[in-house]
Amino acid sequence: MQKGPDQEFHPVVFLSKKLSERESIWSVSEKECYAIVYALEKLCPYVWGWHFHLQTDHAALKWLHTVKENNKKLLRWSLALQDFDFDFHHISGASNKVADALSCESFPESTG
Asked: Based on the structure, what is the number of domains in the chain?
């Protein structure tokens, strides 16, 4: 998101990815963490070298920087995220209406 002329924050880009069969059985925390890793891989040219705020509605990800070696996947992702200069900010799901609307399965089917 970035500030517009009206001094309000507006989304700049939306990303999505269909999970593989293997990825779909991961825990919620693993899926949420993977979403951040995936997004930063895609957006690296735009955020590399800049301090930015990462907003997530998954409060558990705040512990990511303290992950222990018992989950190699999360440890690997935690190390990859250390290359970026960001602060985690929890935003409640109820106030994250843009993301909720995009993840909602109630969109009508395309008739094209």
From this structure: 1
Given a contact cutoff of 8 angstroms between Cβ atoms, the answer to whether 4 and 10 are in contact is yes
Q: Contact at 8 Å (CB) between 57 and 93?
A: yes
By residue range, what is the domain housing residue 35? 26-103
| Tokens, residue 92 | 């409640």
Work out the average pLDDT over 12-21. 90
Spatial separation of the C-alpha atoms in residues 3 and 11, rounded to whole Å: 9
* SS (HEC) of the chain: CEECCCCCEECCCCCCCCCCHHHHCCCHHHHHHHHHHHHHHHHHHHHCCCEEEEEECCHHHHHHHHCCCCCHHHHHHHHHHCCCEEEEEECCHHHCHHHHHHHCCCCCCCCC
Specify which residues 10 forms β-bridges with.
Answer: 2
pLDDT at site 111: 45
